User: Fold these one by one.
Assistant:
Number 1:
Amino acid sequence: MMHMLTPAQWVQEELLAGRNLQPAQEQASAYAPANIALSKYWGKREKHFNLPITGSLSVSLADHGSQTKLQIIDAPEHAVYLNGEQQGADTAFVKKLDTWLALFLPTDVHLRIDTHNTVPTAAGLASSASGFGAMALACNELCGWQLDYTSLSTIARLGSGSASRSLWHGFVKWQAGAADNGHDSVAYVLPERWPQLRVGILTVSSASKAVSSREGMQRTVQTSPLFKQWPSQANSDLATIEEAIMAADFSLLGQTAEHNAMSMHATMMAAWPPLVYWQAESVAAMQQVWALREQGIEVYLTMDAGPNLKLLFEEHNTPLIKQVFPLLDVIQPFQSAHKNS
């Protein structure tokens, strides 16, 4: 079925109807946390509106994310700085940003965009999610839209699917929705908090991925015979993880999240050409996690489209896990009451 509106028409005529597209102030800044999906988003039902086949659920990574400052400049194009370094107009990041800004920003308005990431860029640690999350929040302030966060999640999603989940701290659910234009494919924060929960980032490599998530997702959907089982499992896992959060059942949360991640990677490996984001060190670390569980230390792993592991455990096991993984970056997702939690 043909879409009645393009993404730009939908944003301007429906989402931002009656709101000013011209910036209301000279500059704005915002922070958005990175997030890791406990129940993964893998596969689009529609690529122009970045609509997922299934819903997903994530936990945000507190002070690991993106801080972005926008400033109006008198120049023929946007000037984009990532961690202090100007990015060329031909880089994938700048092209993606230009396309996204063109959804709503008048063509005669140009910005200096300064983004500082506290997560490795393009290494499977959701830096594009926090990047577009921070951009959406900053644009909301710059243009004075006064959109609520759930509405804003649709704009963030048009930049990066996972960005829809990076506007809040805590547990965030992104629902798949059914509408062609994605107006119901929105994210929202769950009320539950889990102060004892820890997420450990084990960085195997901070090099950029050879195959982007977007490209990898498309290849898996098109060529992997295992993918046809994925949507029903993903929906079931999403429901189970939500139940585990409500019941504060860590075993159920960890087991389901790890099984979900391994199943997603299995669909990739069965694609052609095969997609293997893991490195030898990734597999060695997985085996160490499983060995810890054999010893009765409850720790689980999850992985996105990259070589790095994210470990899930509770606070009382931190010292034992740090003995095995001394370089582990331990995050407390619920360490403080953030204003957008």
Number 2:
Amino acid sequence: MLRFLQKSKDWILILLGIILIMFAVFNLIDFNPFTYVESLKETPAVEQEGFAPLFIPITRADGSSETYQDGGVSSNAFIPERIVIEKIGLDAPVEVAHTINVDVDGQEVTQFLVPEEFAAGWHEGSAPLGVIGNTVISGHHNAFGKVFAHLVNLDIGDEITMLSGTHEFRYTIVNKMILPEKEETLEMRMQNARWILPSTDERLTLVTCWPANSNSHRLVIVAVPETLPPTPTPTVTPVPHPTEVIQIGRPITELLSSGKSTPTPFLQNIIVRNAGRYSVNIRALPDMEGKIVESFKAGDEATGLSRTEDGDWILIEYKDKQGWVSAELVEILLPVKSLPTAVVATPKP
């Protein structure tokens, strides 16, 4: 071994010299190789076309941080499906904004991924509609469909409508803030994030970036439930004769799942109408988690193709696209030729 070292001492000296030179260079450029290796294990924040990422403190198993609930929502909870703001002409679907854990400035935080399409995002883990808590909805304002492009034009006192199935929830804006966000310290951004954390009251919070040319600030709008008078129950007029009456506009599932045979020509002409005030989501699959492929506009008609076995979902063709709509949100119209011809008596002179 000693003989080997004596023969190789020149190479050993050269190698040690190279190592010393590398450390000197690292010190000169303030580079720590151990810190660099550790940083490779971190998950960076996801960039979304300049949209300032939405962060909150990460969930702790010991409950040390104030974060979103982690137990999911009940099966009968009212999950937001659409958002309607008449003042700015907004009628858009709402999808789930999922979360990932990322590392920012050496701190692990939770980031919300805003939908990259014309859709708002309901923050995963925030409150559903109609219960105590903070229902948080975010969206892009200058990219990916610009769903919140005109959100800045809203004022205190304006109304927001949220839809979940056939259920409608109305809110009144009580607070509007524009907060510095981009390029701010993580501590400042965590302060801003308090507005999207859980609350002890029922509220709706809308979030986007501002202005369009820089996304340097966060636009936050807070609304509270609107108090509405009770809706009177309509009086049903009894049918004078116990004969079957075909009702124009009755729910399509009532017709298709009645168990009665229907003439084939009639099935070929089923017309489905959205008779509601707002658009209805058309989904790729007959499920509330199905991807939204189109919006069935209020007052529009489509062709009914089929239904699920339980009659809860209807397959329609609309604007050259096929998809599923919730049966409780649409109505069926019978073509005029499907109605029986009445024999009208001629009055005597």
Number 3:
Amino acid sequence: MAIKLLVFDFRESERDFFRSHELENFEITFFPESLNNETLKNLSSDLLEQTAVISVFVDSEVTEDVINSFKNLRIISTRSTGVEHINKKAADAKNIAVVNVEGYGARPVAQYTIGLILALVRQIIPASEYLKSENRICQSFVGRDISKFTIGIVGTGSIGFAVAKHALAFGMKVLAYDIAERKDLTEKYEIQYVDFNTLLRNADIVSIHIPYTGENKDMFGFEQFSIMKNTAYLINTSRGEIVNIKDLYNAVTKGAIKGAALDVVTCEYFNFKCSNLSHTLYNNFDCVEEAKILREFVKHPDVIITPHIAYETQDAIDYILEVTFIAISDIIKGGNSYRVN
């Protein structure tokens, strides 16, 4: 008997994988919408009764109510490394396995990070927009040579390390901050660990590559931007919650720092989704406020905001899906290699 699997947050870029792979052991239903307390109401009683596996992305909110609504759920699979959008405590209570995917982001996110740096420092986007405009006002697009820059990398896991290697290839000086310093990096590469404030004070570019833990919410705010150079740029391809967006907006628009590039924000479903939003989201004051700020912020010539696509190459997407089904099959067979709870 085929295993009932519901795939939420389904995207067009994932379609070819399912077309080209034989997954005859699964009866799969696709939903472009995220799974949350509101969209849960659209699922039939049969689906809630029969589903054994759900697959989601970080836009979903797998709450205790969502978990308890599925009567025979055995596996929650997230097509991401982070699992903060899943209530693991509720899953544990029902002996439901939570599995994730690691190792897909280092290369594409590092490449994208360097791309954002080049786009900011060399004013590539304003220059391109200038040529598209019919009402051109002469302006300068003089940039900087990034080999003269110092980059400060916050977090030296696989992604932060990959960014450091790219930065070194461009001739940049690399400072790093991490609560767990890696001796292997300092021995083999010209990477210097410093304390957090020293990094902020000396870096021309600060690039964030740490997971969101809840405790590091608003790790970057008014105080940190005050320490940074007024010529410095902030890059965030990590998690939106780590940066206080209002403080960042004020820092850039008032000249405390030069500019910023963000591929992540706190309310990504609210700000980045193409589809209509549930009316309940509009009652989320914090998300509404963030949306208002982003609407103005994106107009700034020294700001780039993109909709969480740093990792999104077709290669990475295919890898994520492949590992997703390996992990699900491993749990079904009694394994726990990919289990995170």
Number 4:
Amino acid sequence: MNLDATRRSLSNTSRLWAIAVCLQIVPCRKRDGTEEFASGRWLTRRKRVCYRNLRSYLALWPREAGLACRASRGRKNVNVVQDVAHQKLAKLEDLLKEMGDVLVAFSGGVDSSFLLWAAHRVLGDRALAVTGKSESVATGQIEEARQLAETLGARHIILDTEELQNPLYVANPTNRCYHCKTELFTKLETFAARQGIRWIIEGSNLDDMHDYRPGLQAAVEHGVRSPLKEAELTKAEIRELSREAGLPTWDKPAMPCLSSRIPYGMVVSPEKLAMIDRSEAYLRGLGFRDLRVRHHGPIARIELPPSEFAKILDGDTAAEVARTLKGYGFKFVTLDLQGFRSGSLNEGVVK
């Protein structure tokens, strides 16, 4: 058989049937020798002729056929993932409807922003966002939370918290987050009671169950609910749904409290937190997004993705960074060769 001649002889109908087979609409042979498609329709004489040509088509273009099949499966996988995420979103909306009135612990991060968006969409003004403000929260984060709440049209309150007045928090034990969340939820409970709001909700997701999160115990003790976790939403699904919703936080890096930059056992102080806050704000101003400045006494340990090592070491940048961070109070400025690792100070901590 001449390859070019056969290719030219194949009709458009045959090519369409090739695509149908690649999409797994595959004919099967019955005992009597006739063939049936998955749709249940019998093959007519014309279709049988097309199918014979189709076999030649697939034999002559195995690479194209394989690519079509793989592309089809890829589309199906993406659609399945999206369908699952939207089913979970529907479950989240049902949970919020059942609650009726909610106070959202809103930090302005990926999870709490998505939760506020969903709560405001379902409940309108019956959803109230409250952001805790203290020395342990990056200064820019409060303003970002305020702007996002305003963009969403959600009611928003900024509430002062005083975790640094608690010696157990200042001592910086491995369950420091428990004491921080206890302070936050205690203040939110009081505020919610004054507003007549039954439920306090926060943004923990399903993935948080696999990380070291002592703050979750405080949520349980104070009756705070985690609707994203109840709806079984993962971080990846929340980011994707946030992107679809047009939320600017969909690709926002994780931003835990500034105290998480201080190794356990080393005292937390306003001075240390201010050094960390100024250092990270300065590095973001240079264009770095995923970063941490860990406070090891006189040493600043910078964590960046390895792909950005060249950028910070290029030209006079390294010298300028060192000079600036020393101006904030550090004596030595180092770059962690292991790169950026969210929660790196939890390494070695036994849950």
